[in-house]
Amino acid sequence: MINITPQVAAAIAGDHSYCHLIRMELANNTVLRFTEAGFDINWNGETFNANGLLLGVDAPNFTTELRIGEISLSFTAADQSIVALMLGANQVNRPVYIYRAYLNPFGQVMPDPILLHAWLITGTDVSDDTDSATCTVRMASEWADFEAPRGRRTTNNSQIRYYPQDKGLEYATQVKKDIKWGGA
């Protein structure tokens, strides 16, 4: 359930303007903040830059079926700083938060912006042609990493990671049948 303040509820019910606040937590403790508003937005002690680097945000498609949602952020690649950050280090599975901020008539953020979704970066593409250059950051919902292997394995490599001198699973690859653990 989304909790909204009375100010935001009144803005939604009436004539309102809003913008998106995008917070990207990248490798090496780098945090980028962008907005598509025509001016910088200050909220929660942070400045979200309206520097023209952000070209667009895909709208997510929500359905009743269970599937992984995906969207993209598009940045201009004419400024090489975005390209260097996205390609200079592994950014996969880094979080991106997208908020909707409702603005008062003076362009200030009404308390409190609504977190639309938290995403994980799945990849980056850079394309350029004679007219433009674009850096596209692909993102998926937090379920994108659902099937990633976790925990310990019954392999020799997994065992020596925790117990370097142990040889108990040295021949585990030669076992041809599944071993049932814990009864049955």
Describe the structure.
The protein has 2 domains: 6-145, no CATH class; 148-178, no CATH class. Helix content is 13%, strand content 36%. It has helices spanning 6-13, 80-88, 156-162; strands spanning 17-26, 30-35, 41-43, 46-48, 54-57, 70-76, 95-103, 114-128, 133-141. A 7-stranded antiparallel sheet has the order 2-1-7-8-9-6-5. Strands 3-4 form a two-stranded antiparallel sheet. A hairpin with a 4-residue loop joins strand 8 (114-128) and strand 9. The protein is elongated, with a radius of gyration of 23 Å. The model has no long low-confidence stretch (mean pLDDT 84).
Order of helices and strands: HEEEEEEHEEEH
Number of strands: 9
Low-confidence stretches: none
Residues in helix, %: 10-25%
Biggest β-sheet: strands ordered side by side in the sheet: 2-1-7-8-9-6-5
Q: What's the number of helices?
A: 3
Strand percentage: 35-45%
Mean pLDDT: 84
SS content category: mainly beta
* First-to-last CA distance: 42 Å
- As a whole number of angstroms, the C-alpha radius of gyration is 23 Å
Number of domains: 2
User: What overall geometry do the principal axes of the alpha carbons give?
Assistant: elongated
The major pleated sheet works out as: 7 strands, antiparallel
Quick tags:
184 residues; 2 domains; two-stranded antiparallel sheet; 3 helices; 36% strand
In short:
The protein is mainly beta and 184 residues long.
